[in-house]
Amino acid sequence: MTRFTSLLGLGILACGAxxxxxxxxxxxxVGGNLTGVAPNSGGTLTFSDDKSIYFRAGQATVPVPYExxxxxxxxxVKTRPRKHEDPIYKVxxxxxxxxxxxxxxxTVEFKGDNGEDKTMTVELSHSAAPVVLATIHxxxxxxxxxxxxxxxxxxxxxxxxxxxxxxxxxxxxx
Length: 174
Hints:
Layout: H1 2-22, E1 25-32, E2 41-46, E3 52-57, E4 60-65, E5 69-80, H2 94-98, E6 101-111, E7 117-125, H3 129-140, H4 160-171
Antiparallel strand pairs: 1-2, 1-7, 2-3, 3-4, 5-6, 6-7
Helix pairs in contact: 1-3
């Protein structure tokens, strides 16, 4: 009975994560070189099809095709204070005064329409950031969009071409 309950719970969590990834995510555009989007403007990341992510901010809509993504990584978790809108006599809201809002930056590097390098850094809620990154990785298939720290130390499938160049350089004595 406990195995069934565990499997059922795991299935519900997986479905919840998949559903959360397909939902629009509220973001703040922190920086980058997107045309028509001002830094620190609010926006939305949407996953409306299997080919692209769409970042909408104001009148601008920036499509980011999955196939053009060269790197996607999460930044450090940050905690910013909450606004104190509730009066202090509402003791059930005091916990909100002492805990901040946890956020995490997601940086996506991709190629633009004309082949130019584009960068987009957005701030997401701490709970949504890993789900968005996992969604990006899922759509990339075998192509990796993140640098793994182990690639600097071990030979992996992702860095095999770099290791061959390093070995050739070292064996020639340069």
